[in-house]
Design brief:
Elements lengths: L6 H16 L4 H15 L4 E8 L2 E9 L8 E3 L4 H8 L3 E3 L10 H6 L4 E9 L2 E10 L7 H32 L9 H14 L6 E11 L1 H8 L1 H18 L5 E6 L2 E6 L6 H13 L3 E3 L2 E3 L2 E10 L4 H17 L7
Antiparallel strand pairs: 1-2, 1-6, 2-3, 4-5, 5-6, 7-9, 7-12, 8-9, 10-11
Helix pairs in contact: 1-2, 1-5, 2-5, 7-8, 8-9
Length: about 325
């Protein structure tokens, strides 16, 4: 389908390939390049990447006249985008007002009078579509179609690679046992927060450093499998007690840290007490109901801090707290 590519079209393909190679290897970065360059290359007023999700096509990344329509959903059945996903074939509508294959209401909503819809196919799977639109009928040429067809072939591969990279990055940032952030991810988040507030001279966050009291005897008595059950329960309680903007992490062993996004009292300190109370509640395990205590240190984060230094201060405060008690907190 489509005509032969001109020199300008081939140059466009090379440009897009280079832009993808130079970008961050993430799904979002690849999609932003694709949608913008696809729109420019075809002189289209608007462009969008739609991803298939539970029987719907979701506007995910947009450009030009379609900017701001992210999250718009179309039923796969009765839309050209859905048909494109089902068939894996490029589809063209020269005039949506007379084309029975389109969702006319949706086309009118985004002022799409004509469009080209290109499947993003990798292996046997169509991941979504790249769609360029115009508010005029018959806006796209055979060369536009041929260009988008060529672009789609390596765009899908780039998205597949980016998906893999995103999954690997996610796995590298998560503690496999508890599902919380790991130490590296926690420090990266703390460093980003400090950098964002550099030079303000104001407190920007609070770090809580928690060490479990009485955990070693559980491991020694019941074995590491039961100890892991306790750690998973602790991780779940941290995750469910913290606010959505906070970051909970397992730093290592039976030590945990929480980055509280707000430094304004009394929120961080009331949350600290709630956490310590929740963590000492009974934990059902395969060896029966067990309990642990928790010692906690607090460090206020400023815009001139270093992430490792903050964690060290919170760690030192935790040990000071631990020295004031023997056994679980009551």
């Amino acid at each position: 389908m489509g005509g032969e590519l001109s020199v300008a079209a081939l140059q466009t393909i090379i440009k897009v390939q280079q832009a993808i190679n130079d970008a961050d290897v993430t799904v979002d970065a690849v999609m932003k390049i694709v949608v913008e360059q696809g729109r420019i290359a075809t002189r289209a007023p608007g462009a969008v990447i739609e991803l298939a999700e539970f029987g719907e096509m979701v506007y995910t990344v947009t450009s030009g006249s379609l900017a701001g329509t992210e999250g718009l959903r179309l039923a796969m059945l009765g839309s050209m985008s859905g048909e494109c996903v089902r068939t894996g074939k490029i589809m063209i509508s020269e005039d949506t007002e007379t084309d029975p294959r389109v969702d006319l209401e949706a086309c009118r909503r985004v002022r799409a009078r004509s469009m080209v819809v290109v499947p993003l196919v990798e292996g046997n799977r169509t991941q979504g579509v790249l769609k360029v639109t115009s508010d005029l009928p018959n806006a796209f040429t055979e060369e536009d179609v041929a260009l988008l067809e060529q672009l789609a072939q390596f765009i899908a591969k780039a998205l597949a690679r980016a998906n893999v990279m995103d999954e690997k990055a996610q796995a590298a940032a998560v503690d496999a046992l508890t599902g919380l952030a790991n130490r590296a991810a926690f420090l990266a988040g703390l460093d980003a927060m400090i950098s964002g507030a550099a030079g303000t001279g104001q407190p920007v966050a609070v770090v809580l450093y928690i060490d479990l009291d009485g955990f070693k005897p559980i491991n020694d008595t019941y074995g590491h499998a039961v100890g892991d059950e306790v750690l998973r329960a602790v991780g779940n309680r941290i995750a469910t007690t913290c606010r959505s903007e906070d970051v909970g992490a397992r730093i290592g062993g039976d030590e945990f840290a929480i980055l509280l996004a707000s430094s304004f009292a009394p929120v961080p300190f009331s949350l600290r007490e709630r956490l310590l109370t929740v963590l000492q509640e009974e934990i059902p395990t395969s060896a029966g109901v067990l309990t642990v205590g928790a010692s906690c240190g607090t460090a206020v984060v400023g815009g001139a801090d270093l992430a490792e230094a903050v964690l060290a201060r919170a760690d030192a405060a935790m040990y000071a707290d631990k020295r004031t008690r023997s056994g679980p907190r009551r």
